[in-house]
Design goal:
- With about 240 residues, this protein is mainly α.
- The chain contains eleven helices and two strands; from the N terminus they run H-H-H-E-E-H-H-H-H-H-H-H-H.
- Strand 1 and strand 2 form a beta hairpin.
- Helix 1 packs across helix 4 and helix 6 packs antiparallel against helix 10.
Length: about 240
C-alpha cells in the first residue's frame, strides 16, 4: 500500500523504503507496467521467482496475492499466474499509478488522467463550497502559502499543490472523491514534472505562476459558498496546469 506523497517523491528521485514483501510487489508491478512482463504472459514459476528476488515462498505468494487484488495478475490452477490487461487494473490504486508513472505513461494515459481529474475535481470544488468547514479553510490557507514559498523546490511545491487539491476533495464531503486522491496526485506530479529541467530543477521563474491568483480566487469562492464560481475556477486551474 502506498501512502499519499509516494508519487511526489519521484520528483526528487527519492525511493520509498521497502521491506521484502513490498520489494517483490514493486519489482513485479513495475515490470508489468513497463511491459517487461507482457500482458497475457505467464509469470515464471515459484522456484525461479524465489531465486530471482531472494525471498521465501510465503513472501512470494503474499506478494502475488496483493498483485491479484490490484487486478494486475490472476492465478489459475495448472496454468500459473497470468498478467491481465490494463483495463482490469485498479487504476485508482496509488501503488498501481506509481508503477505506471515509473514505467513512463503514454500520451493516451496522461490524457485520460486529465479528463478524469476535470470530471472529479470540478465537482469537488463545487461541493467544497457547500460543505467546507473553518478547519478546511485553515488548512487550505496553509497549503496555499506553502505553495507560494516552495516555488523553487519541486518536491515540496508538488506536495503543497497536491494538498490543496486533496483538501478540496476532503471538504466536498464525498467519500468517493476523497478516495480518488491517487489520481489527483498522479496528475499534479505529471503537470509539474513536465515543467522541470533535465536534473529535476524548477524553472528560473519558479513553479507557482501563473496560477497563484487563480488559486486565491478559488479559495475565496469556496469561503463565499459560490459553487458555480468555484467550479469554473477549478476548471481553469486544471486547463492551465
Amino acid at each position: 500500500m502506498s501512502e499519499p506523497g509516494s508519487l511526489i517523491r519521484s520528483l526528487s528521485g527519492r525511493p520509498a523504503a521497502r521491506n521484502y514483501h513490498s520489494f517483490v510487489i514493486n519489482e513485479i508491478g513495475l515490470a508489468i507496467a513497463a511491459g517487461d512482463m507482457p500482458i497475457g504472459s505467464i509469470l515464471p514459476n515459484d522456484a525461479e521467482m524465489m531465486a530471482r528476488f531472494g525471498v521465501s515462498r510465503t513472501v512470494l505468494r503474499e506478494a502475488l496475492k496483493t498483485l491479484e487484488a490490484k487486478g494486475l495478475v490472476e492465478a489459475r490452477a495448472k496454468v500459473g499466474t497470468r498478467v491481465i490487461p490494463q483495463s482490469r487494473w485498479n487504476l485508482y490504486d496509488r501503488q498501481v499509478l506509481t508503477w505506471i508513472w515509473e514505467a513512463g505513461p503514454d500520451p493516451a494515459f496522461l490524457a485520460s488522467i486529465t479528463h478524469i481529474r476535470h470530471v472529479l475535481e470540478v465537482e469537488a470544488a463545487g461541493l467544497a463550497a457547500k460543505h467546507r468547514t473553518p478547519e478546511h479553510m485553515r488548512v487550505l490557507a496553509y497549503w496555499f502559502n506553502q505553495r507560494a514559498q516552495m516555488t523553487q523546490q519541486p518536491e515540496p511545491f508538488a506536495l503543497a499543490e497536491f494538498e490543496l487539491h486533496r483538501v478540496i476533495c476532503e471538504a466536498s464531503g464525498s467519500a468517493m472523491l476523497r478516495a480518488a486522491t491517487g489520481v489527483v496526485e498522479f496528475g499534479v506530479v505529471a503537470s509539474i514534472a513536465a515543467r522541470l529541467g533535465p536534473e529535476l530543477t524548477a524553472p528560473a521563474a519558479g513553479l507557482a505562476e501563473p496560477l497563484t491568483e487563480t488559486y486565491a480566487a478559488l479559495l475565496r469562492k469556496i469561503v463565499e459558498a459560490d459553487t458555480e464560481a468555484a467550479r469554473a475556477l477549478m476548471a481553469t486551474i486544471l486547463q492551465t496546469a
